[in-house]
Amino acid sequence: xxxxxxxxxxxxxxxxxxxxxxxxxxxxxxxxxxxxxxxxxxxxxxxxxxxxxxxxxxxxxxxxxxxxxxxxxxxxxxxxxxxxxxxxxxxxxxxxxxxxxxxxxxxxxxxxxxxxxxxxxxxxxxxxxxxxxxxxxxxxxxxxxxxxxxxxxxxxxxxxxxxxxxxxxxxxxxxxxxxxxxxxxxxxxxxxxxxxxxxxxxxxxxxxxxxxxxxxxxxxxxxxxxxxxxxxxxxxxxxxxxxxxxxxxxxxxxxxxxxxxxxxxxxxxxxxxxxxxxxxxxxxxxxxxxxxxxxxxxxxxxxxxxxxxxxxxxxxxxxxxxx
Amino acid sequence: xxxxxxxxxxxxxxxxxxxxxxxxxxxxxxxxxxxxxxxxxxxxxxxxxxxxxxxxxxxxxxxxxxxxxxxxxxxxxxxxxxxxxxxxxxxxxxxxxxxxxxxxxxxxxxxxxxxxxxxxxxxxxxxxxxxxxxxxxxxxxxxxxxxxxxxxxxxxxxxxxxxxxxxxxxxxxxxxxxxxxxxxxxxxxxxxxxxxxxxxxxxxxxxxxxxxxxxxxxxxxxxxxxxxxxxxxxxxxxxxxxxxxxxxxxxxxxxxxx
Lengths: 323, 258
What we know:
The complex is a heterodimer. By secondary structure, chain A is mainly alpha-helical. Chain A is 79% helix and 1% strand. Chain A contains twelve helices and two strands. Chain A has a two-stranded antiparallel sheet. In chain A, strand 1 (86-87) and strand 2 form a beta hairpin. The termini of chain A are far apart. The mean pLDDT of chain A is 89. Chain B is α/β, with parallel strands linked by helices. Chain B has a single domain (8-253), classed as Rossmann fold, CATH 3.40.50.300. Chain B starts with 7 loop residues before the first strand and ends in a 5-residue tail after the last helix.
């Protein structure tokens, strides 16, 4: 009986040992697969992350390559930047001066911002601080819808609605002008300002509101004495992103600003923007020609402008986090 | 009672409060004596912070609060329609659990109250004087006098909390409500705030919510014990801790629950 018991115990021990070896094998095989899968996934994610950089540089180099030949050999940079004479298809005397286009872009953008900043930031303050929860949800949906309207539809509105309206209200002969384009750009950049501005205000800790409230501040005093100073960087970033959107917009301004190369003297003068010029003329310029290359150089100019604006916005937002 | 100074600065009569359907306060009636430090104790969720936040009506910022009953501060019902919330909050200051100086300079934090209540501009000489007086009163003047333009949010927590008390003083409040003012502070900070409370005692009526029974015991004249939204016992602090009348109070201070 004693022997039998020992045998049984030994057999059980051996079985256990064998089972554990098998288990260890399976575990290590699984671990190896997990390891492979994990590193593959890691690489995939890394690729996704880097791809944005690759694309941005790719686009920049493509645009630069198309324009580089003329940019570095032949283009009179001073004339390009400081002359208002834009005659790219002249038979006798070709001149490429984009000053009027730059001024056109900036006049439309500036007027658009003068309209959009008070509205956009005001809406952001209202949505985040003053309205009820139900109204806030409703408003946010509508504002997002506003952001989703294609720019060509905005162009139609400029042509069909704003054009006669401006003619009638201001008694001007043509309604396709700086004001028209600026109104459209304002409507297009308000949504981005509202949503970024609201985020900035929401990020202000509630304890600040409570502190001011408990000291007897009214809602309006809380907004302008506490929230606006506390959220100023975020609000500035919201404005700059709106500017970036407005500078880069093409189709709506192409349709609504009158498309005349002209330095405007009032909001009722027609202008042409950098973006609209590229869109309108690229199709007709012979690939590789000087005209074609100059349009790409305008692209580089636009690229630099939006880069500077976005980079500033980025620095400003970083400023918030550092505090 | 014909004294010029009323003996009670806060009185409640059958005060009930609901958050939506949940009843957080049940028929609370009490009187807080003028110029003393009264502590509110009880386990979490017993309604002590809710009660405190009734006295300057800041809990109404959440839309779903309903109140019934009466609160009289300096013999004026604060739920009267003619009461101005702004004036009420001017005379009833509040110190919060986490120090919450505004993201402005130290100087601007202290004159913030004056600025929002002032009509027109404030003279610089006047505000300078107020800042110095308030900071001296909380014992921060010597430490901070050279960096009044510095950001208040960069101070140590203890200094921040003292600053939060200092910024109430220019408004000359009658009552100072403190909602666990030491819970974010270390032992030294707690001691400093308690000492400050003793220095302010007499000039202001101080009502402090605390989780820390030892704190209630060493730093208040009277104590109120609350449980499940009800006021269980209110008496002199020594009596409440040494001879509690209600068995629930006795069990709580012995640490059987909470």
